[in-house]
Every structure is written in C-alpha cells, then in structure tokens.
Amino acid sequence: MRALPAPMAAAFASGATAHCRCWKAVRRDGAVFGFTDHDRDLAFGGVTFKANTGLEAAEAESLAGLGVGGGEVAGALLAEAITEADIAAGLWDDAAIETWLVDWSNGATRLLLDSGTVGEIRRDGLAFTCEIRSLAHVLDQEQGRRYESLCDATLGDTRCTVDLTQASRRADVVVSAVPEPQSFVMASPPGFLAGAFVLGTARFTSGANTGATLSVLGHVRVGSTDLVTLWAPPGKAVQVGDALRLSVGCDRRLETCRDRFANGVNFRGFPHIPGNDFIVSYARQGEVGQDGSAVTP
Length: 297
Known about the structure:
Elements: H1 6-14, E1 19-26, E2 32-36, E3 42-44, E4 47-49, E5 56-61, E6 70-76, H2 84-88, E7 96-103, E8 110-124, E9 127-134, E10 170-180, E11 183-187, E12 201-204, E13 213-222, E14 225-230, E15 243-247, H3 254-259, H4 276-280
Antiparallel strand pairs: 1-2, 1-7, 3-4, 5-6, 6-9, 7-8, 8-9, 10-11, 10-15, 11-14, 12-13, 12-15, 13-14
C-alpha cells in the first residue's frame, strides 16, 4: 500500500484539499517539459510546470499483476511546448512521463502517482490525446534473439560492423523537386544503382528538418534523376534545396550481406534452419531443398 505524506493524508481526511496533477515529460532528444492542470505555474524538482496548457487527465487505469496499465492526457497543440511538427517527427515517441499529485499551496507536499512512457498519440484538429503506458509495457517487448532466416542486426551497428562512412555507401544529395510530402527528386548520385538506398536512411543536413533521420521505402531512377520515397513524411515540409545524406540499405538476407557488403562472416540470421513453412511443404520434382537435395524422376 502506498503511504501518503502526512500533510496530504490530513488534507484528504479533512475533506478539503488543494491538489492538482502535474506531468513531467522528458523527450527522446533530452528536452524536459512540465505541465499542470492547475490555474497557475508550479515549480519543484528543478522543473516549472506550466499552467494554461489545456492539459487534463482523461483516463487512468491500473491492472493487477503484469498487465499494462496507464492512462491518457488530453490537451491542445501548443506552439511553445507540444507542436504537431514535433509529434510527426517522432520526438515524443516513447518519451518518459511522470504523473504527480501536488498540493498547489505547498509544492513540497506531493506524491508520485505513476511513471511511464508516451504511447499512441491521437490528433483531432488542434487537440490531441496522449496515451501513457505503465512501465510494465517493457515486459511485452521482445528480448534476446530469435531464430529466423533474416539478419537481426541493424546495418552499420556494432554487431553488423559494416562501415557506412565509406564513400561507396553514402551520398550527399540536394532536393530538386518535391512531388509528394514523403517523396523527393534529386540528381542521380554517381556510382549508385537504382534501388541502392531502399531500406536505408535519409538524414536531413539542411532545411527545416535538419537532424531528422527517416527510413527509405523506394528508390527509382528516371533518366538522370532519382525519385526517393520515405516510409513517412518528415515533420516539416521538404523544400527544394534541402540537403540530405543517404545511406545504402540492406534487406537482411544472407546473399545481400555476402555479395553486396562482403560481410557474410558477421551475418546474424539463421538461413539454414527450416522455418514453420518447412513443416507443411512437400517436395516437387526438380526443386532443390534446403539441404541441397533434389527430387528427380
């Protein structure tokens, strides 16, 4: 059972309280924000909790055992704190959230109600509803390695070891046209075939999205130009003249790792272990099996 601070317990016992909720948020980029549903700013723990933000607790849930509980916070999109562009850019994804019950007449009297992370954010016009997931959601995440045919390393990480800083594996380009919010046209970089950047990354080095890194969905060549399509549009509109650094991609197959990157020794998949489809498959004439055998007439 959670113990209340003595002044807070006395206030609840008296039936007359002066309490409000405060939320402390730490984004992925390290920025710290404080919000409160009180009518004036509060400060404690080195954080100022801003009032008049329109935030209010929308729903709270607590589950027994290891169930993932949490709650929701609803509010308005504010230019100085929570902006639509920051949400779209993913800066609020998995941000750490602390929920406090605070005596607004004495900030030293407070109780940490819950800690969690930002989950789904739903937008409706200029308003949003933010899901706060309890720390138990971490237990739902996959841990360790899985037996699968594809590599489970990320291209360029310490397990993969492929050096993406090599000139043959990255290209600095400039946007020459923007046909759609998540697509852009550029001059074809020399030395790269069409499709080289599929499943790679695009990092903006200039423009409104500077510093943002997004995944590449498509890369096709049309004459002397290339069309690159991102998995999702960046937080702010791409403009002609924006500069990007594109890194080549990998489909995580053994053949690609071995032939394109000469890195088969570090392949982190299990391509020779039969999968579930092997159980329900059957031999066909002339087809070569995983063990190299073939059915002949």
